User: What shape does this take?
Amino acid sequence: MTEQPWRVVIITSVAPIAHAFAEAVRAAGHEPVAVLTPRRKQPMPPDLGVWDATAPPGLDILTPRNKWSMAPLLRAVRPDLAICFGFPWLIPGDALAVPRLGVLNMHPALLPRHRGPIPTSWAVRAGDATFGVTWHWMDPEFDTGNMLAQAPVSMEADDADIRVVGPRLIRAAVELLPRVFERIAAGDPGDPQNATGEEPYAGWFEEDYAGIDLSQTTAEIDRQVRAWSLIGGSPFPAPTLAVDGRRIVVKKVSLRDPGEATGALRLEAADGPLWVLESEPVEGPEAQP
Assistant: This one.
């Protein structure tokens, strides 16, 4: 007997992810029934956040006030499966237990490398050759469940904007979903991650990494600036540099001379020059070097 189409809930706070996953679920012959997205203290940009105008048509929008209200909302839509990407909370065990088949997470790294909240930034900081995507089962810990599929994702030398990198990650994740669904339908539990404990953890950047040190190489400074740019926010200004008695946040640099007409600020690093293309002043008490 052929199994009925699965009822699938998409767990995300990012509208483009919700749309891409809803289309992929339908293409696989299953039914996306709802998007679960968190209430946020700080609103996302209107085109990125999930709300009435941006959610996939025909799907319910579930908005838990906190992670403990997720399970009752999920039970209301009777999901067979939930798939998650771009969601800020650790999902508690009672919510993970609601879908009949389980909850899948799409982590933007080649697990077990770069477990944690900002893996794309850490891939840049670490000098990795590529980004990556991994579909894995969710368990009560962060990014530790059995894997169902993973693939590298190209990294370009100027990647410094999640609006550019994000669609690349989403496309790679969607391409893997048919294989993932086949393994789930076959009752395949996935592959253990077999972490050694030596893999770098992608935790939030520390304040010590916020200041630019010109005794480093141009490549290290370039990676630092791009890594911070992919985070999308920080509790303190970063990455910063003292210039002529004032402190600036460096937004974009170039390892090649862009020419005098650009007005770029030239810096001397340990192995040569680089140029600041975009910056903004630091405001308030932190403005002093």
